[in-house]
Design brief:
Layout: E1 3-7, E2 10-13, E3 18-25, E4 35-41, E5 48-53, E6 60-62, E7 70-75, E8 80-85, E9 94-101, E10 113-114, E11 118-123
Parallel strand pairs: 2-11
Antiparallel strand pairs: 1-3, 3-8, 4-5, 4-9, 5-6, 7-8, 9-10, 9-11
């Protein structure tokens, strides 16, 4: 079993930045064993893919809606994945989730483990 715990969310003004963290643990989790992704879900909307990072951290892929503003990274020694979010807009308001998968994928259904989410609220 793998446990994922997100942190770093909060209330921020438009144009601001946040750095989200996702700490992973569990008997079957090793620092580089999983592809890691970030998703978000706004009220009344479907869960949306944001970014994915390879096991080594050498490869990343972003949704077009966040490309250039969001950066995903990982520290396998610390079992932590990060999401740097810049130039925030009110449209970025959502619960942000990290997830772990054995597959390189933007599809939420391909992810086996999920965190509880962290709320990001952007005021105008």
């Amino acid at each position: 079993q793998v446990q994922l715990v997100e942190s770093g969310g909060g209330l921020v003004q438009a144009g601001g930045s946040l750095r989200l963290s996702c700490a992973a643990s569990g008997r079957t989790f090793s620092g580089s064993g999983y592809v890691m992704g970030w998703f978000r879900q706004a009220p009344g909307q479907e869960r949306e893919f944001i970014a994915v990072i390879s096991r080594s951290g050498d490869h990343t892929y972003y949704a077009d809606s966040v490309k250039g503003r969001f950066t995903i990274s990982r520290d396998n020694a610390e079992n932590t994945v990060y999401l740097q979010i810049n130039s925030l807009t009110p449209e970025d308001t959502a619960v942000y989730y990290c997830a772990a998968s054995q597959n390189w994928s933007p599809r939420a259904s391909d992810y086996d483990y999920w965190g509880q989410g962290t709320q990001v609220t952007v005021s105008s």
